[in-house]
Amino acid sequence: MAQPEKLQNRAMVLDSPRTALREIVRPVAAPQAGQVLIRVHACGVCRTDLHVVDGELTEPKLPIVPGHEIVGSVVELGAGVDRFAIGQRVGVPWLGYTCGVCRYCTTGRENLCDRARFTGYQIDGGYAAYTTADARYCFPLPAGYSDAEVAPLLCAGLIGYRSLVMTGDARRLGLYGFGAAAHIIAQVARHQGREVYAFTRRGDEESQEFARQLGAAWAGSSETPPPVELDAALLFAPVGSLLPAALKAVAKGGIVVCAGIHMSDIPSFPYDLLWGERTVRSVANLTRRDGEEFLALAPRVPVRTSVETLPLAQANEALARLRRGLIRGAAVLVPDKATGKRN
User: Fold this and answer.
1) Do 266 and 293 belong to one domain?
2) Which residues have CB under 8 Å from 315's CB, separation 6+?
3) Are both 313 and 175 inside the same structural domain?
4) Which domain holds residue 85?
5) 72 and 171 belong to one structural domain
6) How many CA atoms are closer than 13 Å to the CA of 189, on its beta-carbon side?
7) In a 10 Å sphere around its CB, with 0-12 CB exposed, 13-18 middle and 19+ buried, how is residue 62 labelled?
8) pTM for the whole structure
């Protein structure tokens, strides 16, 4: 294989918020100490990428290569890296660096580190043919999944899993927004013996049917009350008005988890909706422990992802379709492989 300094990296770059990504070609840099150089085989298109591109997350490194559901093989090891081998398949998630010494990092809460840096936001990500990553934050990936199938597990799956854990043993679970994360977590919840109630945009009968196919006891519009009181609700759709709706749907003692990194403004609501020891909380990023636990659990369920693959050069189209709610399951970019739908 050519030496890394002679390789050329094709990537899609965001120069400024609310503009289209542009394709660039530049030399591949050798990995620094502690890093791995990865040839990208697939990269999921996440709603967080939309928040970056649309300027709703306001502190990106610019220009930036988006993408944080990265699947690839190790091409070269930086100095000091011994946990991966050349050719090994690895995954790169959203969390790309933490300081390791702050009060959050030293108490098992590295996801809250004030000096954390994130893949595809402050660190160039996977909308590219090659990328580098801190080896400490990469994961070995389970067998039994293609590169495209495993990509959504690295954010939609991980954040969904962390959100689900926060509901404790809630039996009746509402999922608001039935996209990449919800279609994964619905399978985990059913595996755990929970009842799933899926909420979609009004008129989105295709997503409602998809939810029922994955075992949902009920699926309907987010404007419609569920047929039973819920014990917990996970909000994957970044729509602030869903929070009071979810509070109204959960029983006393229930919990509502806001699972996204960004949400539109939450409207005021009467205290009566919160009273009764209902709880509202958010999910912020992930820990490496979340990744290890979920990537071990997924094959046992087994979680099956529904993905639609597109060429890397069509990253703007993939983002536009996700923005309009036209992706069933998850969209995945592939640099140089055949594309199409896989259910």
Assistant:
1) no
2) 12, 21, 45, 66, 127, 333
3) no
4) 4-155+286-342
5) no
6) 37
7) exposed
8) 0.94
